[in-house]
Amino acid sequence: MTVSVRPTRAGAGRTPGPDREELPVNDTLIRDAELVVTMDGDEIPGGWVALADGTVTGVGRAGDEPTAARTLSARGALVTPGLINTHHHIFQNLTRAYAPATRYELFDWLRTLYPLWTALDEEAVEVSTWVGLAELALGGCTTTADMLHAHPRPRLIDAQIRAARQVGLRFHPARGALDLSERDGGPAPDALVESAEEILGDSERLVAAYHDPAPGSMLRISLAPATQAAVTERLMVETARLAERLDVRLHTHLAEDRGEEQYCLETFGRRPVDQFEHVGWGSERAWVAHLVFSREDERARLARWGTGVAHCPGSTMMLGAGAASLPDLRAAGVTVGLGCDGSASTDHASLWLEARTALAAARERGGAAAATARDILRAATVDAAACLGRGDELGRLRPGAPADVVVWELDRFAFAGAHTDLVEAWLRCGPVRPRHTLVQGRPVVEDGALTLPGTTDMLTVHARISRRIQRLGAGA
Ligand SMILES: [Zn+2]
Q1: How far is the CA of 439 from the centre of ligand 1 (A)?
Q2: Which of 21, 143, 427, 468 is in Cβ range 3.0-4.6 Å of 84 for a Cys bridge?
Q3: How close is the Cα of 342 to the center of ligand 1, in Å?
Q4: What is the distance in A from the centroid of ligand 1 to the CA of 88?
């Protein structure tokens, strides 16, 4: 099969017509793949994908490749849509695998790290975001959400956006927030807590300054009070109203941990999902991280509302809470997207590794028939796109879609003997890294290496900043 559209190139100065020779109007042709998985109903052995001006122009079988200005080889490789990360806290790579916190469950883990995060400033956030987005691209991610929920200084999300524009990933920053300090019964120190007015005002500023709702958008803002156990009820209510008025999405953590459940019962007299509904968040505008501790009726309500779940099994298992049950969530009709979560709980940011963890966790919960590699790939592409409100355009390779593509290197040793199902092999063999990661048609990773200049310098600066921040813990 071959499906294609004629690429259009505004301002290219050429008018194709029957009486003039066709020049290559595709800028990139990815060809000779072992298998192209479109996530749009086709798996094409020996396939190709053509791109022009940041858009997929066609996919097809060997023998009918179109012309293109340049060719990227996918020989011996698997081609998929770029993976989409629905939940992250990139800034936490500044406190990654921080030894004093590695044996704690969620709220003690947070209390150990919060004092360090009071040192965040624009430089620290810009550098950590640059490094974190580069790491994501090296793991096959082309679009990421990110919740920055510690704001000891203003304009930190602006710094993230500067980094995202340099790296070139499709970026969905969520304006995280804490407005309940330790004095008022919350877990966070005063230095990380803002007033509801400050949070709502800055949220509106960010949306006005940066949010792009257009198809193919490289940047969309969402609003994200951190968790009901760390913010006021009023902030949850007002944020939902603001998101409705600004027509942006809502994000928070929900039912992540037994401590949160206990807090909600004691404080509101309601379980986390009941409180979530009470503050007006039960809608398709919202997607939530985790939902580890949920009852059948709660999952059914999320499905009815259209509220998606960011499934981050690596993080919740590392923090001792266990993984949400992907089979139970899917059986209830909940849309589940994959997420790697923050770099100080999961510690890695490879969506391939998270996908493999999700496959093992699903089978541990539901038995060997509970999930296949294709189920997990769906959570990392099509369903993750739906969680971010972009199910109509991202997560599939089809003509007209944004050109977010990953060519996965299939190591000859790790894949020796894997002949019968390359998608299963992709997730069960490995580890796997991309040969090429393209976002909006632009290679961020090419031949296994970042195309970005200054990588070594950026890592040196990151080391300096992260050591400085971690010394704060040593002095505490
Ligand atoms: Zn999180």
Answers
A1: 24
A2: 143
A3: 6
A4: 6
CA of 178 to the centre of ligand 1 (A): 13
Spatial contact of 224 and 174, defined as CB atoms under 8 Å apart: yes
Give residue 48 CA to ligand 1 midpoint distance, Å: 37
CA of 288 relative to ligand 1 center, distance in Å: 9
Taking the C-alpha atoms of residue 418 and residue 422, their distance in angstroms, rounded to an integer, is 7
The rounded Å distance from CA 124 to ligand 1 centre is 19
**pLDDT per residue as tens digits for the range 360-399:** 999 999 999 999 999 999 999 999 999 999 999 999 999 9
CATH number of the 83-387 domain: 3.20.20.140
Q: Tens digits of per-residue pLDDT, 415-465?
A: 999 999 999 999 999 999 999 999 999 999 999 999 999 999 999 999 999
Q: How far is the CA of 141 from the centre of ligand 1 (A)?
A: 17
Rounded distance between C-alpha atoms, residue 323 and residue 313, angstroms: 5
What is the predicted pLDDT for the residue at 23?
Answer: 58
Radius of gyration of the CA atoms of the chain, in A:
22
Whole-number Cα distances in Å, 203 to 148, 152, 174, 387: 12, 15, 9, 20
Ion ligand 1 residue ranges (Cβ < 5 Å): 289, 341
In degrees and rounded to multiples of 5, residue 399 shows phi and psi of -55, 135
Ligand 1 geometric centre to CA of 255 (Å) = 11
Q: What is the pLDDT of residues 103-155, one digit of tens each?
A: 788 888 888 999 999 999 999 999 999 999 999 999 999 999 999 999 999 99
Domain ranges for the chain: 2-81+398-450, 83-387
- With a cut of 50, say whether residue 169 has pLDDT above it: yes
- Tokens representing 67? 């012309």
Residue 7 CA to ligand 1 centre (angstroms): 40
